[in-house]
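A.,

Following up on our hallway conversation. Structure tokens first:
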């Protein structure tokens, strides 16, 4: 039973399934109905039998010429998306490897290769070996028949040569008899004249006759042997006729076998084409594998370079991170110092503002006191002026009273009592004047003290204003330092953020590098797997090279045998040529036969040498493929 795949399509059926449609021919030695075959997906040693989509199609039928068959199977996308999936068709214990064709472009990226090349190659090699064995058996049988016919023809040709030699011997005897008669006639005509010549000629002829007789004896022995050999050849001819009759009797099975051989040759040609396709695929895969190896090596070099750069960047990032941490700690300390400075500046500003407020209050109090003192001074000055005016008025009144008293005394000497009263009143006025003067002196002293206090307050106010200006300058300097510190803090915060971002970027790059290293390790493992497959294929090529070497050795042994046969035939031809020198015609015919035989043997030797060269070229090609793999 055989199966010829015409088309294997992979089509999308739904979101989760794919349709696998098979078209081909089933063949067998006799027509019979088959069961529905099973389509199996082989995945990591596990078998997944796919579901047959039943329809109106009947069970397949196998015929001698092959019967067309079409079937559809449903397969999950998840199984087809898995790596290293092979697809086989199984029926009645036979397994056929399948290769999908006609994959649509929209699902090409989701479909991987369904056939394991090694299994297909092993099956193809087995089928090719079986076909070659059958073809070699047929060729060997045909070669045996041809060799038998060739031997018969060679025996017949040799027999013909010996017959011709006997004929020539008879002609030589007749010519010798004629020559003897001619000598007798010459002897009768000129016995005295040609006696010496006749004696010499007779001696020569006698030697020739002796040589011819010796050769005749040898030829007679050879003829007897040839006669016996002819009997053997006749017996072999009878056997050959029987074999030919048997061959004719077995012509029908031979024709069947020939038809089968032609079919096997067609299968062999198909398998060779498939093998050539597999070899082309293998070469393409080997080239792709070499390119991938080179790309992986370059990528490995680039990854190592990037990894070294990443290590350096990671070390730099770590140094920067450490520097960032140191800078962050320094910034934290400076920030704490800045906070302390801010706090102290705040306390200083608060104290300064408090002192300024106190000084302002004191200045306001002093200003209010100065205003009050001014008012009191004005009031005192007014009262002093009034008292002065009163004192002047009292003085004037006292003078007028004295004048009046003098006039009154002069006028009224008798008014003593009034005068005493007036004097008492004057004394009272004097007391009041002294009191007023004391009060005026006291007011003047208070005014002086007020003026000195005002001068002291003016000095304190000037000192407070100088202190305030100094405090304002210190506040301005503190504000500038605070602004500079804030700018520095912002700059340090920016640097810290940059350091943190750089550290995060370095961590991300490290993670990316780790992911790249993981992907590279995965690709490296895949590369090792491919290298293992390539080594396995190289082992297969080595075995094939060993087989080819054995074939070459066998061909070499056959060539040696042919050379020995050629030497034997050349020896026989030499003996035959020595025998055929009895006569020029026989020698020419024998030489022509020898030349023909030598030409045929040279042609055979050339064919064998060509076969040896082809085998050596095939061995060298296999060796180159092994070295390339």
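Then the amino acids I'd put at each of the 629 positions:
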């Amino acid at each position: 039973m055989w199966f010829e795949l015409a088309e294997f399509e992979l089509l999308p059926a739904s979101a989760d399934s794919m349709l696998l449609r098979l078209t081909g021919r089933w063949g067998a030695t006799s027509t019979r109905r088959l069961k529905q075959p099973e389509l199996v997906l082989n995945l990591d040693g596990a078998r997944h039998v796919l579901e047959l989509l039943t329809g109106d199609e009947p069970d397949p039928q196998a015929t001698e010429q092959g019967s067309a068959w079409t079937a559809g199977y449903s397969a999950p996308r998840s199984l087809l998306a898995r790596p290293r999936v092979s697809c086989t068709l199984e029926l009645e214990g036979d397994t056929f490897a399948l290769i999908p064709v006609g994959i649509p472009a929209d699902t090409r990226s989701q479909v991987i290769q369904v056939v394991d090349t090694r299994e297909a190659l092993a099956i193809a090699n087995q089928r090719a070996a079986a076909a070659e064995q059958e073809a070699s058996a047929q060729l060997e049988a045909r070669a045996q028949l041809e060799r038998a016919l060739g031997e018969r023809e060679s025996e017949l040709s040799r027999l013909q040569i010996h017959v011709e030699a006997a004929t020539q011997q008879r002609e030589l005897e007749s010519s010798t008899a004629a020559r003897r008669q001619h000598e007798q006639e010459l002897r009768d005509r000129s016995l005295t004249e040609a006696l010496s010549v006749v004696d010499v000629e007779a001696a020569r002829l006698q030697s020739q006759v002796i040589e011819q007789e010796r050769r005749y004896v040898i030829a007679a022995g050879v003829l007897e042997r040839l006669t016996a050999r002819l009997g053997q050849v006749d017996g072999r001819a009878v056997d050959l006729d029987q074999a030919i009759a048997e061959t004719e009797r077995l012509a029908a099975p031979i024709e069947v076998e020939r038809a089968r051989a032609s079919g096997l040759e067609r299968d062999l040609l198909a398998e060779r084409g498939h093998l050539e396709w597999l070899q082309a695929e293998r070469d393409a895969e080997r080239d792709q594998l070499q390119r991938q190896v080179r790309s992986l090596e370059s990528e490995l070099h680039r990854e190592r370079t990037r990894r070294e750069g990443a290590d350096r960047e990671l070390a730099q990032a770590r140094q920067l991170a450490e520097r960032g941490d140191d800078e962050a700690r320094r910034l934290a300390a400076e920030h704490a110092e800045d906070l302390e400075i801010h706090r102290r500046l705040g306390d200083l500003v608060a104290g300064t503002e408090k002192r300024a407020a106190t000084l302002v209050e004191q200045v306001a109090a002093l200003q209010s006191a100065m205003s009050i003192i001014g008012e009191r001074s004005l009031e005192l000055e007014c009262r002093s002026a009034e008292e002065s005016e009163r004192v002047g008025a009292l003085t004037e009144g006292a003078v007028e009273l004295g004048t009046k008293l003098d006039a009154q005394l002069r006028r009224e000497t008798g008014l003593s009592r009034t005068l005493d009263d007036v004097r008492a009143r004057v004394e009272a006025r004097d007391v009041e004047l002294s009191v007023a003067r004391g009060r005026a002196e006291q007011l003047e002293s208070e005014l002086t003290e007020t003026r000195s206090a005002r001068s002291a307050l003016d000095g304190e106010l000037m000192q407070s204003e100088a202190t305030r200006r100094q405090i304002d300058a210190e506040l301005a300097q503190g504000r500038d330092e605070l602004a500079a510190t804030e700018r520095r803090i912002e700059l340090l915060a920016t640097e810290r953020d940059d350091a943190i971002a750089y550290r995060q970027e370095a961590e991300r790059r490290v993670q990316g590098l780790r992911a790249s290293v993981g992907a590279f390790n995965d690709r490296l493992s895949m590369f090792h797997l491919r290298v293992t497959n390539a080594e396995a294929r190289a082992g297969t090529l080595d075995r094939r090279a060993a087989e080819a070497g054995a074939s070459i050795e066998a061909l070499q042994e056959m060539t040696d045998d042919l050379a020995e046969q050629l030497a034997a035939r050349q020896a026989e031809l030499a003996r035959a040529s020595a025998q055929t020198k009895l006569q020029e015609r026989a020698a020419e015919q024998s030489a022509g036969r020898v030349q023909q035989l030598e030409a045929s043997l040279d042609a055979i030797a050339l064919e064998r040498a060509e076969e040896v060269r082809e085998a050596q070229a095939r061995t060298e090609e296999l060796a180159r493929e092994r070295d390339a793999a």
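The longest strand covers residues 2-12. Curious whether your intuition agrees with the design.

B.
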